[in-house]
Design brief:
The chain is α/β, with parallel strands linked by helices. Helices cover about 35% and strands about 15% of the residues. It has a domain at about 55-220 and about 285-400: Alkaline Phosphatase, subunit A.
């Protein structure tokens, strides 16, 4: 048996080989794909799904306090804890990971805010001014008290099987609003959190829908995204594009559609297009002075100001992490730690809500705040000054996106 072989070009290089030998780098493959879109056979972009019901939320911001914030010290007042402080609770303690003692009353004061009269801790005094726009959920629960599986449950809905993340599903289902920026952006300073990029993976969805991580400890655009600046001159880039377009056309004629390769090409396309738009949107110095002061010139303030700018440019889903560490994991010294941690977020969150409302963006933006679990109402041994993990009950809150308190 014999098969007819297509005519071979001599010498025959794959696109990867051609780029490697010419020293251009694999990223230039994306540029050729941009020009190849003029040909109908090169068009492979998937269409976003149609929504089956009207909704006001068009974009999502997820503020993730990784480590497990204490709900009983922030958004869920438990006055009986002060009554039983240092004593056993009337009901037996639920099993915990570590040894625990008697009740640990919150050292912080709660008071009623807004027309709704919802009680919020003094730690979030500025945020609580927006309580009438918030829906505080005090009935959250999870299956496992460990950080790793709980993070996967919260972000991907499964701690065993590789499932797509929350942001990936939203990006896949609704599509991107701006083809020059990723549909799903992850802001996380100081590296990756526990379990790393699995928290924003696309799993069995195309790779183009996974989160794009930015290490926001960096303040310059060139360091936020490596190689964002193009070193090539326009003329040289044009010649490279023309050559790669010919190679791309030859590849399609010989091999046809390759879904895996095309998914990678889409990522490279995006990286190329980001050169022109990301540099602008990530430059916070373009914001008026009074807006910068409203958010605050610290890490979390910069993260939320960047988030608002990304929303304005059409990024569909933005996940904002506290940091790559687990700073909300307060097994000891919780009073001092929470004052510091909440102090880093209170002003920026209040500014973010104010800013979105003034710009008419709050109704179309769903804001989520929370962590992977909460903290116990009892003190952890031996410190007696912290709380253990609590997956039995904890709190999150939402605002915007048509949510009612």
């Amino acid at each position: 048996m014999s098969f007819n072989q297509p005519t071979q070009f001599a010498p025959q290089f794959s696109r990867r080989e051609m780029l490697t030998r010419s020293g251009m780098g694999i990223g230039m493959l994306a540029l050729a794909e941009l020009t190849a879109r003029e040909n109908a056979q090169a068009s492979t972009r998937e269409k976003p799904a149609t929504r089956h019901h009207p909704a006001s939320a068009k974009q999502v911001v997820h503020l993730f306090m990784n480590g497990g914030p204490s709900h009983v010290d922030t958004f869920d007042p438990k006055p009986l804890l002060k009554k039983y402080h240092g004593k056993p609770l009337p009901n037996p303690n639920l099993p915990t990971e570590r040894k625990t003692a008697g009740a640990l009353g919150s050292p912080f004061q709660f008071k009623k805010y807004g027309e709704s009269g919802i009680e919020v801790s003094e730690l979030f005094d500025k945020t609580a001014a927006h309580v009438d726009d918030m829906c505080i959920i005090r009935s959250m629960h999870s299956d496992i008290p460990n950080h790793e599986p709980s993070l996967l449950l919260m972000n991907c809905g499964d701690n065993a099987l590789p499932r797509p993340s929350f942001g990936s599903w939203v990006n896949y289902g609704l599509g991107s609003l701006n083809e020059n920026l990723p549909g799903f952006v992850v802001l996380c300073p100081n590296g990756f959190p526990v379990v790393g990029p699995k928290n924003w993976r696309s799993a069995f969805l195309p790779g183009a829908f996974q989160g794009t991580h930015l290490d926001t400890k960096e303040t310059s655009v060139s360091r936020l995204i490596e190689n964002i600046n193009n070193p090539q001159t326009p003329k040289r880039q044009r010649r490279q594009l023309d050559l790669l377009q010919k190679i791309n056309q030859r590849h399609l004629e010989q091999r046809g559609h390759d879904s895996l390769l095309e998914a990678r090409i889409q990522s490279f396309e995006l990286a190329y297009r980001m050169q022109f738009e990301a540099s602008d949107v990530l430059d916070l110095s373009k914001e008026p002075k009074h807006i910068q002061e409203m958010y605050g010139d610290d890490l979390q303030g910069r993260q939320l100001l960047m988030t608002r700018r990304l929303l304005e440019k059409g990024v569909r889903f933005i996940q904002v992490w506290h940091s790559g560490g687990q700073e909300w994991d307060n097994h000891s010294g919780i009073e001092k730690s929470l004052r510091r941690l909440c102090g880093q977020w209170d002003q920026p969150i209040a500014a973010f809500l104010t800013d979105l409302k003034q710009r008419g963006m709050l109704d179309s933006t769903l804001l989520l705040w929370g962590g992977e679990f909460g903290r116990t109402p009892v003190a952890e041994l031996p410190s007696m000054s912290g709380r253990d993990h609590n997956h039995y009950g904890f709190s999150m809150w939402m605002a915007g996106g048509g949510v009612k308190g």
